[in-house]
Amino acid sequence: MQIYLDYSATTPTRIEVITLIQSVLSQQWGNPSSLHEWGQRAATIMETARLQIASLINATEPESIVFTSGGTEADNLAIMGVARLYSQPQHIIISSVEHSAITEPARMLELWGWQVTRLGVDAKGQVNPEDLKAAIKENTALISIVYGQSEVGTVQPIAQLSQIAREKGVLFHTDAVQAAGRLAIDVQAMPVDLLSLSSHKIYGAQGAGALYIRPGVEIVPLVLGGGQETRLRSGTQAVAMIAGFGLAASLAAEEISKEAPRLVKLRDSLFSQILDIPGLMPTGDLLHRLPHHVSVCIETGNQEKINGRNLVRQMNLAGIGISAGSACSSGKISPSPILLAMGYSEKTAVAGIRMTLGKDTTQQDIDWTAMVLKQIINRL
């Protein structure tokens, strides 16, 4: 029995998306910048996708969607694109539980003389809005807070946090890669200035992403050349991947009202079935949480055998794909920086695992996974 429970890492490309991608590659392969018929057909396909992705987040102006190669590039374009507006180092605020696509650009800015404030979080991974208020300075150029945390599933109060930024006149970015298509996102209802998206997290193909830029917000491009994407991301666009991204976004928007509650039911079922495992502790906010996300730590005093990476290997041998937040370097297991930021000890922070569900996940998958996880831990 094969069970895939790592949908936060990547989702399988939908058959409808694969069919469309194949059609575009074989029949609509023109360069969308070309003025002839072949080019204009490709351009039409790409603009249709732009409309579909804008609709997913209720962006009323499709031109606010700038295509990238994925979520990482979108995050980098947001952070560095704002930073390059300034001739002198300024101040940026991020949370202590951001994806590396945010933390690494922030670290680079520090090397360039920028001040970086990393907001602490509580034991559930939540940012306190009052901490954000207190951290804003006169020279704060940007605030970037993740929408839904990929390792522990916590959803941040983005509407409230972005409102604080707006009142202070500071640009606000959120990495919504994990949240889009799983939670309803409305950029008209909350004052987010920049928002990152990724195709392969919503059953599109790998290799496409987007950055939403609120009309009127200026950033400096990172990739220079022919001036595609309103001069914000030069280079011939990956039309087929973008077309698939658009279709995936459209299908996600149609299905979210039914799919999200279904995932919540399965998520809660898995939590309830494994809570009696000795030493198991759920991680993240159980209330404000991504609908498809289950994450736990298992502290037993036998962390050499019961750690995140070993549990991933053991579950894989049983035909179940999950993931861990800890990393392995030179044979030594390193604790998850996300769990450390949430206040967990180094001993506990090596024992975190994540099981994320998707459209193909069934109740039978959940029941089998819970049983196998218990058996593995008892054996170890």
UniProtKB/TrEMBL annotation:
Keywords: Iron, Iron-sulfur, Metal-binding, Pyridoxal phosphate, Transferase
Enzyme category, top tier: transferase
Catalyses which reaction(s): (sulfur carrier)-H + L-cysteine = (sulfur carrier)-SH + L-alanine
A single MF term (Gene Ontology): iron-sulfur cluster binding
Domain Aminotransferase class V stretches: 3-367
Record Pfam families: Aminotran_5 (PF00266)
InterPro entries xref list: Aminotrans_V_dom, Aminotrans_V_PyrdxlP_BS, Cysteine_dSase, PyrdxlP-dep_Trfase, PyrdxlP-dep_Trfase_major, PyrdxlP-dep_Trfase_small
E.C. no: 2.8.1.7
Cofactor requirements of the protein: pyridoxal 5'-phosphate
Summary of subunit composition and partner proteins: Homodimer.
Family according to the record: Belongs to the class-V pyridoxal-phosphate-dependent aminotransferase family. NifS/IscS subfamily.
Name by which UniProt lists this protein: cysteine desulfurase
Organism of origin: Dulcicalothrix desertica PCC 7102
